[in-house]
Structure formats: structure tokens, C-alpha cells
Specification:
The protein is α+β, with helices and mostly antiparallel strands. It has one domain: Jelly Rolls. Helices cover 16% and strands 36% of the residues. The strands form three sheets. Strands 1, 3, 4, 7, 8, 9, 10 and 11 form an eight-stranded antiparallel sheet that branches.
């Protein structure tokens, strides 16, 4: 005779509960857990706007702008620069991360060298550093910009980058 393992009452209830949960429709599981707060911004539903002339030179489009609710301070957008387009000088109170998804661009911190970056690069500009970034004269560039707000603002805009500043020779890192 083969000995069969016996289930304790607790083990039986656990296995029964797992089996029952697997048989429940998803909506029942969601109802038991409460509502989900995760959202997905669908590309097809995102608005694209032109970059304001006060803050950009050349053709710039901004897609998927977002601002997270408190306690988060994070905001961002996907920004596309046509060849020759660039930001004005600006600062970010908590710094800024740029994730370059397409093309080639230039960036510069005030009184620093102008640097080139490429698709796949990730840039970090520290808090309160006056800087600009944009496409090169002959190739467009797209990046995802991520920054945090301090006292309700993620950026302080300043004067436009002059053509002489923009076209100055590249520096060295």
C-alpha cells in the first residue's frame, strides 16, 4: 500500500484559496485590491505643440508634456529640434536630465565649452547651472527632458543664445 501525504487543514485552505484566486476573473481580483492608479499616456493621444518663440530659436516641437502630482516634483516632455533649433539660456532649480533618442545635438554651460552629444547619450545639467541645448545646424535632435520643480517651477528662462554663441567652435570635455 502506498502512503498518501495528508494535507493539514491550513495547507488545504491555502491551496484552495490559490485555486479559487486563479479561477476568479481579473475584474474580481481588481475589485478586491482596490483601484489601480497607474496610467499610460498613449502616443496616439499625446498633444504636440510648437516650442514658444520666447524660449526657443528655430522649429521645436514638444510632445507628451507631463507634471506629476505631489509629493512628486517630476515633470518632463519629449522635445524635437529641427536642424539649427535650440533653447534659450535657462536654469533648472533641481537640475535636468536629457535622454537623447535621435540625432546629434550641442549643449553648453555658461562660460564652459560647447559639447556635442548623440542618440543614446544621457546628459545631466546640475541645479542652477545656466545652459542651453539644441540640434546642430545640419541634423535634428530629439530628447526626453526630465526635471523637478522647486517652489512650483521646473525652469527659469533667460536670454536667447546668439548665433555667435551657437556657432562657436566645439570645446573639449
Amino acid at each position: 500500500m502506498i502512503a498518501r501525504p495528508t494535507l493539514t487543514r491550513a495547507a488545504f485552505l491555502i491551496q484552495f484559496g490559490i485555486l479559487l484566486a486563479l479561477m476568479l476573473p481579473v475584474s474580481s481580483v481588481q475589485a478586491q485590491r482596490g483601484s489601480f492608479d497607474m496610467t499610460i499616456a498613449r502616443k496616439t493621444e499625446m498633444k504636440t505643440v510648437d516650442g514658444p518663440e520666447d524660449y526657443f530659436t528655430g522649429k521645436v516641437t514638444i510632445t507628451g508634456q507631463f507634471q506629476r502630482d505631489e509629493p512628486s516634483r517630476v515633470s518632463g516632455a519629449i522635445v524635437h529640434f529641427e536642424p539649427g533649433a535650440r533653447t534659450a539660456w535657462h536654469t533648472h532649480p533641481a537640475g535636468q536630465t536629457l535622454i537623447v533618442t535621435e540625432g546629434v545635438g550641442w549643449t553648453q554651460i555658461a562660460d564652459g565649452p560647447k559639447l556635442e552629444f548623440n542618440a543614446g547619450d544621457i546628459l545631466w545639467c546640475p541645479a542652477e547651472y545656466k545652459h542651453w541645448h539644441g540640434a546642430t545646424p545640419h541634423q535634428g535632435m530629439t530628447h526626453v527632458a526630465i526635471q523637478e520643480s522647486v517652489d512650483g517651477s521646473p525652469v527659469t528662462w533667460m536670454e536667447k543664445v546668439t548665433d555667435d554663441e551657437y556657432l562657436a567652435p566645439l570645446g573639449t570635455e
